[in-house]
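ok here's Acyltransferase 3 domain-containing protein:
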Amino acid sequence: MDQRKTIDEVFLLRSMACLGIVFLHSFSRSFLETNTVVNSMNLLFTFATPTFVFISIFILARSYQDQLPTNFWGKRVKYVLFPYLLFGTFYAGSKGLEVALSSETSFLSAFGSFLWRHLLLGDYHGYFILIILQFYVLYYFFHSHLKKWSPKVVLPVAFLITSAYLGFFNFVPPVQTPLGEYIWAKLYWIPFLGWLFYFTLAYYCGRYYPAFVSLIKKHSKLVLAGPVLTGSLCVFLYQTDVFGKISSKQIDMLFFTTSMIFFIYYVGMSIRRVPDFFVFISQYAFGIYLFHPLFMAFIYIGLSILPINLPVMIQVAVYAVVSVILSVIATYIMNKIPFGHYMSGKIGMGRKKVSEQKVPVSVIVPQQGVANKS
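and the structure:
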């Protein structure tokens, strides 16, 4: 098997997921008024978060066919859990300061309120790291069973479990209490049940990689048409208020995200070489994900004091390009500071380093950030 080609596909998948999140937030920042077309585009960008979940488990299943490495938890604590805790604390501090400056609430009170919600409930944009950590636990305890179970049974069961869980929160009105409203608004995102299908799909795609590749090649026409068909369905259901939110935590997004994963992977297999740009974005994907909301807040301040209003699409470009550049710079600097990579995650391996590896495990894990081992 061409291990280098496998890496190129993962590079493309991770970078597209990363850029999808950046553009989702760029459009949200730029279009402050309701816009049907933009909202529909933002809905489709939400495929990115579950794709990160898929990548994390796909790499594990592809890399460790028989047994997990002895340092399995060490790396994940250092390069996944630590960044989650440190960034959660950082953003709690920045939000606490904002509240303290704009109200009579003390900084310590506001900081404490944000801190426990960030770290324990995943109530900030790093919540998907908490989901991935749950799947590491599941993988650790169940991978030996999953390889014995038939994917023809596990995948439909996992799909039904995820659909039932999401369907409950999609269609059942929230309990009319502050706690109930919070659960329906955000907290239901965190338990692994809402993401279980992606976990099992990624596991079997990674474990039976040759069959996975063969399958998407065999059904290439359906793979190419899939995003159009399922994306159109998602937009239709959104615009008809069947699903009134822009969220990846909806039943219809199970179909669209899966179709996008297969589509991007197929494209990666079909082109001769994934452009270096996507490899570069993939290397810095974890840092971009964690840093970009911070820099978008600064960009917002900068744009607000300009004497002219930039055209809205120019604003989108400014948010996306500048936040990515600054996030890359910040991640690079953090990796040069002692222990800094515990906050930003490590910069991933590039194509050259990967191609020099001879061991499949090293080749398949190009980065120690969230969407890699994560």
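+1. The chain is about 75% helix and 0% strand.
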